[in-house]
Amino acid sequence: MSCCAQNACFLLDEDPSLGCIAEQEMLLASRVVADGVRQVTLSVPAIHCGACIRAVEDALSDLPGIEAARVNLSTRRVSVRWRGERPPAIIKLWPR
Which long-range contacts (CB under 8 A, 24 or more apart) does 47-52 make? Predict the structure, then answer.
């Protein structure tokens, strides 16, 4: 296990005042990839190893509505696919 994977987690948007903004921005940045499925690509600049990739993909996959999460280590981005009217409540990856 690397130095970062065991402490990686996602902060969920629990502040209603931020939720509207984050949700709108996520919808604007996303695209429709199938009937009822949208995809967005997000930056994860703190990612730097295979353990990070697994931690990010596992954390995202466990969230309700998310169908797939795939990290690209070279670009330090994650593609997230979700089903539903509202995007998942993800703000950022935050090492604790």
Answer: 47/71, 47/73, 47/76, 47/78, 47/93, 48/4, 48/73, 49/2, 49/4, 49/5, 49/73, 50/2, 51/1, 51/2, 51/4, 51/5, 51/6, 52/2, 52/4, 52/5, 52/8
Q: Where are the domains of the chain?
A: 5-95
The pTM for the full model equals 0.73
Span 21-37, pLDDT tens digits:
677 888 888 999 999 99
In the chain, which residue ranges form alpha helices assigned H by DSSP? 16-29, 50-61
**Closest to 18 (Cα-Cα) out of 91, 96, 92:** 91
Fold of 5-95: Alpha-Beta Plaits (3.30.70)
> Helix (H) and strand (E) counts for the chain?
2, 6
